[in-house]
Amino acid sequence: MKKTLLLVLPALALLAACSHKNEQQQAQAEPTFHDVMKDQVDKHADEVWDDTNAAVGDKGGLDPAKMTDDMWKKLAEDATAVQEGAQQIAQMDKIVVIKPGETIADAGVPGGHSAAEVQAGIDKNPQGLRDHAANLAATMGDLVKAGNAHDAAKAGPIVDSLDGVCEGCHLDYWYPDQKALVEKIIKENK
Q1: What is the number of H-type helices and E-type strands within the chain?
Q2: What angle do CA 30, 36, 42 make, to 5 degrees?
């Protein structure tokens, strides 16, 4: 019996160590929230605005006469990329802001937050973040449809609303201490 225990215990310890190492490697292989935001959502949201800025009409709004077929195609592609990134965030089981040793944009900048602060905010209400991401995905889905249909009447207001959709999440999770100030400014300018 003692011989069996002497053989089994080291094997179990080795198995546990390997299992923990595999879990760590798998967690590091999965994209983090910050990875998806900077490499997909933010990057392509900026491109959505770039796609449409040149086509703003004299009275505001999106002027269909200024949109070429290639511009509509690019708008739909960029909106699809934002949608896919937002869906990925909405479906994250465990939302991890960054991998160990990485930093986030705005860390150390006045008004910015560290990854630990952002992680703490997400950990308080991860479903709220998923809901924001699902809202962004739905908004981008509508923009994809409008872009594919070359529908400026629908695409323009969606692009105009995009900043607000993004900002709502940012104020809840990225820089929440600025939320009261933003709300005050909005209220004063109504």
Answers
A1: 8, 0
A2: 175
Question: pTM for this one?
Answer: 0.81
Q: What is the DSSP letter of 149?
A: T
**Alpha carbon distance 89, 37 (integer Å):** 9
Helix, strand or coil for residue 62? strand
Tell me, what's the pLDDT at 2? 53
> 31-188 has which CATH code?
1.20.120
The letter for the amino acid at 14 is: L
Sequence ranges of the domains in the chain: 1-29, 31-188
pLDDT tens by residue, 95-150: 999 999 888 877 888 877 889 999 999 999 999 999 999 999 999 999 999 999 99
DSSP 107-142: TTSTT---HHHHHHHHHH-HHHHHHHHHHHHHHHHH
Average pLDDT over residues 152-167: 93
Interatomic CA distance for residues 21 and 27, integer angstroms: 10
